[in-house]
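Q: Given only this backbone (434 positions), what sequence would you predict?
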């Protein structure tokens, strides 16, 4: 899953949903002349996480698969609630702005057909909206066109052109700073990838949020912190590997991407499950071997190409911007071969430009829009199962733990404020008057 990080770092255009978080610090590193370091760290982090994921698939598949079976609709809903609260940490310096963007993303995610009953919502009679807003269109508009409009407005050339490119690989200090986030992201991504509904998207931004939350210098995130590239890139690759565990051991696809692989195997008469290793060992171990080869090829192909990708930053932005817009519009049209999709991308480009003017980070909006429909479906299935009893989210142990973590995360900003000097400056005079 490394390819999407290249455009995220160089052009601030996520190549896939899991690379949205990489834009936050990767693009800022490119603007500072550290694009080569960001690309190298992303490649090595992806390789390490992918290798750890394949090793875990070989050694830990049975016990982890049995744990994944305990995840039903309530547990999925609790995990997604926890993840959406972590989206607030992607909002830059203001968690409030991040949560506001997440709320807008949830609203946009509700456009289209009801996931349970199939009735249209917020379509206003427009048939094209019956399937909702496509993530690709929203991301290309917000990040691609929005970034171009913001840069073109500047009287001076963007920093990404004027700064020196510097070394093509990270320095020793940068590797040292990225090592621990890579390890934590790999482990976290591996665990989340095993869970149904987890996957690369939620693991990438949960990893980023935790790194920022427990960092000694959280103010550096969003401004070119190499930890903000290493952690999410490792997490999404770890999750990509471990998401095969429920499929190969239980025959249960954990997310939409794995469901496509599941369908392809069924078409060829292959039934994934506990008997796969015994009945078709050549297929199972062939898949494992292909994962190892893929991870090695990731380094072999991408590290030498860093020099080529970084050269893009030497192109004057006045020449590069029209090509970015053209590629975005062509990409938008190719999604469904529809001019309507081009209009959607342009509209979100204008919205992205406005968000930048108001200092709002668009990443929480995109991620909440992706996770919102999953959350709604899980909550409603859980309530249908419990006949409307909301306590189902607190009666099951795993769901209760996840909900407790969500409450703690929601209250943690208030606790920090209560312990701050500013709080006592406000409360002190009031108590003195009494």
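A: Predicted residues:
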């Amino acid at each position: 899953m490394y390819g999407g990080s290249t455009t995220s770092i160089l052009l601030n255009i996520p190549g896939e949903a899991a690379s949205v978080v990489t834009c936050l610090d990767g693009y800022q590193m490119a603007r500072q002349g550290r694009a080569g370091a960001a690309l190298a760290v992303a490649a090595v982090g992806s390789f390490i996480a992918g290798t750890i994921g394949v090793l875990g698939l070989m050694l830990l598949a049975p016990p982890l698969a049995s744990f994944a079976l305990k995840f039903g609709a309530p547990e999925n809903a609790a995990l997604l609630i926890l993840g959406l609260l972590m989206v607030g940490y992607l909002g830059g310096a203001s968690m409030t702005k991040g949560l506001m963007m997440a709320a807008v993303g949830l609203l946009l995610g509700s456009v289209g057909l009801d996931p349970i009953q199939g009735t249209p919502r917020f379509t206003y009679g427009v048939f094209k909206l019956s399937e909702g807003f496509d993530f690709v269109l929203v991301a290309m508009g917000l990040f691609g066109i929005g970034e171009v409009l913001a840069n073109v407005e500047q009287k001076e050339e963007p920093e990404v052109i004027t700064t020196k490119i510097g070394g093509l690989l990270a320095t020793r200090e940068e590797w040292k700073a990225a090592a621990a986030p890579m390890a934590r992201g790999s482990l976290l991504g591996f665990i989340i990838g095993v869970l149904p509904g987890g996957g690369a998207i939620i693991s990438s931004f949960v990893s980023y949020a935790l790194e920022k939350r427990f960092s000694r210098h959280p103010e550096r995130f969003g401004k070119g912190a190499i930890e903000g590239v290493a952690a999410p890139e490792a997490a999404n690759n770890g999750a990509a590997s471990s998401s095969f565990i429920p499929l190969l051991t239980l025959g249960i696809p954990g997310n939409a991407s794995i469901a496509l692989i599941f369908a392809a195997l069924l078409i060829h008469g292959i039934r994934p499950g506990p008997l796969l290793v015994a009945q078709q060992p050549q297929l199972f171990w062939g898949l494992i071997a292909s994962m190892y080869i893929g991870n090695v090829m990731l380094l072999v192909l991408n590290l030498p190409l860093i020099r080529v990708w970084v050269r893009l930053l030497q192109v004057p932005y006045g020449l590069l911007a029209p090509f970015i817009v053209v590629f975005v519009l062509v990409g938008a049209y190719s999604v469904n071969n529809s001019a309507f999709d081009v209009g959607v991308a342009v509209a979100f480009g204008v919205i992205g430009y406005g968000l930048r003017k108001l200092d709002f980070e668009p990443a929480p909006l995109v991620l909440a829009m992706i996770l919102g429909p999953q959350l709604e479906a899980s909550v409603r299935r859980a309530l249908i199962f419990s006949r409307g009893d909301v306590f189902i989210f607190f009666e099951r142990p795993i769901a209760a733990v996840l909900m407790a973590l969500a409450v703690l995360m929601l209250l943690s900003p208030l606790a920090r404020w209560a312990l701050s000097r500013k709080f006592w400056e406000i409360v002190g005079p009031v108590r003195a008057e009494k």
